[in-house]
């Protein structure tokens, strides 16, 4: 019946469209045939204007391109890249084969890195990103305002029916109308409540200039800081590397007004924030972001995380390194052969070698935290092993936001060998 590529998520946009149409237009049909309190002209144009704004903002949130990174092995300028001053790591996405700018993450659904990725929304089948966030906020705003107005209209008719419930049935609405009114009231009430909660959370994120992923990272960092306090300020990373963990301030909160301005596309025009046809943020933006300078320039976000640091590579790529190979291509081929053998040796199924979870690396009876750590990884099946399964206080992990966890946690190559060799040649020629 369905093709092999069919996914239930493909029904999300049609389902939301049906819901919007049901609430916006069948309600008007009910009001027009409700003889006791028919729909007035003012109510008609208000409902339809709100519906039009919802349609425009929703479909822009669905179909505007959330952004993509150009494939390039050329090393970007320092202001366009994010490096970790403590570990020397520079963000490289091995899926996209490109440098990853600040606040970008690889979406497992869109299969590319998304600038300032907030989350992949299942109800729009699109990523909420630097380019789609203003449309998403406007959709939530008009949906809540429009359905709140519809709620008042439904409440007015429902109150009238209740007050006149002692009248004979032939003087009141028909049974079908009562059922229709009840369904409209229940569906609209539940929907507007859920969207109101989501709008409040989104407005909070807008005011603090944090994405849902970055909120997760903030909570993750707080957990690592608590752990490091009982271990002398250090945690062990891959290959036995000791990583110093210091409390780090979130760098992108630059003030409420500036935060909102940046999140709504960079315009200071207050009216344009509410205009459904407002322009999408300039495609030249989204590569770098203003910071509050609370931390040193060499300190990056997210903070150092032992399980997000690449495995050490025992290859000397300095300018004075010996040259045992006839040419660069032979060196690359030899490296790829060693890499293949390592993967066969360490993993039976040639998959990714998952690192041990924190509670397996340290014995609880030896290092007992002074305060309870509610966010420890949960044990379970294979998909819940390792630090990538860490959940915040709300039980969310990175994959719940649409992030490709393997690209985030197991990018052990970090920067490809070819790029490192090219960099070494540039250093030698200087």
Structural notes for this entry:
The chain is mostly helical and 430 residues long. 41% of the residues lie in helices and 5% in strands. The chain has ten helices and eight strands. The protein has helices at residues 12-32, 41-63, 133-163, 175-208, 212-229, 256-263, 328-346, 358-361, 405-409, 417-429; strands spanning 92-93, 98-99, 105-107, 112-114, 119-121, 126-128, 234-236, 242-244. The strands form four sheets. Strands 1-2 form a two-stranded antiparallel sheet. Strand 5 and strand 6 form a beta hairpin. The termini are far apart. The model is unreliable at 73-89, 315-322, 348-355 and 357-382 (pLDDT under 50).
What attributes does this structure have?
single chain; 430 residues; mainly alpha; two-stranded antiparallel sheet; two-stranded antiparallel ribbon; 10 helices; 8 strands; 5% strand; elongated; Palmitoyltrfase_DHHC; protein-cysteine S-palmitoyltransferase activity; transferase; transmembrane helix; PFA4/ZDH16/20/ERF2-like
């Amino acid at each position: 019946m369905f093709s092999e590529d069919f996914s239930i998520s493909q029904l999300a946009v049609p389902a939301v469209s049906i819901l919007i149409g049901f609430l916006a237009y069948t309600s008007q049909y009910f009001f027009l045939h409700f003889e006791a309190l028919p729909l007035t002209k003012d109510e008609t144009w208000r409902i339809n204007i709100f519906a039009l704004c919802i349609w425009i903002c929703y479909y822009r949130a669905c179909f505007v391109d959330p952004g993509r990174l150009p494939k390039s092995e050329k090393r970007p300028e320092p202001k366009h890249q994010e490096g970790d001053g403590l570990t020397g790591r520079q963000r490289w996405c091995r899926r996209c084969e490109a440098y990853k700018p600040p606040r970008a993450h690889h979406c497992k659904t869109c299969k590319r890195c998304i600038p300032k990725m907030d989350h992949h929304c299942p109800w729009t089948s699109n990523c909420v990103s630097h380019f789609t966030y203003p449309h998403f906020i406007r959709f939530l705003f008009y949906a809540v305002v429009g359905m709140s107005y519809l709620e008042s209209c439904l409440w007015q008719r429902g109150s009238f029916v209740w007050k006149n419930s002692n009248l004979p049935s032939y003087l009141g609405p028909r049974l079908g109308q009562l059922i229709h009114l009840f369904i409209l009231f229940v569906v609209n009430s539940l929907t507007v409540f859920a969207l109101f909660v989501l709008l409040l959370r989104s407005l909070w994120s807008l005011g603090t200039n944090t994405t849902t992923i970055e909120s997760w990272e903030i909570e993750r960092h707080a957990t690592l800081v608590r752990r490091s306090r009982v271990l002398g300020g250090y945690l062990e990373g891959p290959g036995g590397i000791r990583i110093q963990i210091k409390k780090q301030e979130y760098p992108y909160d630059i003030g409420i007004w500036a935060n909102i301005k940046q999140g709504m596309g960079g315009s200071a025009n207050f009216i344009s924030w509410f205009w459904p046809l407002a322009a999408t943020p300039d495609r030249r933006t989204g590569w770098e972001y203003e910071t509050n300078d609370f931390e040193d320039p060499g300190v990056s976000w997210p903070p150092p995380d032992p399980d997000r640091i690449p495995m050490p590579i025992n290859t000397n790529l300095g300018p004075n390194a010996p040259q045992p190979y006839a040419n660069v291509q032979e060196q690359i081929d030899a490296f790829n052969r060693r890499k293949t053998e390592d993967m066969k040796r360490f993993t039976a199924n040639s998959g990714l070698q998952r690192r041990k979870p924190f509670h397996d690396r340290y014995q609880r009876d030896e290092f007992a935290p002074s305060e309870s750590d509610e966010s420890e990884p949960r044990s379970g099946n294979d998909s819940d092993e390792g630090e990538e399964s860490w959940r915040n206080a709300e039980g969310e992990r990175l994959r719940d936001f649409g992030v490709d966890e393997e690209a985030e946690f197991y990018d052990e190559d970090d920067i490809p060998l070819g790029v490192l060799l090219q960099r070494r040649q540039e250093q030698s020629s200087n």
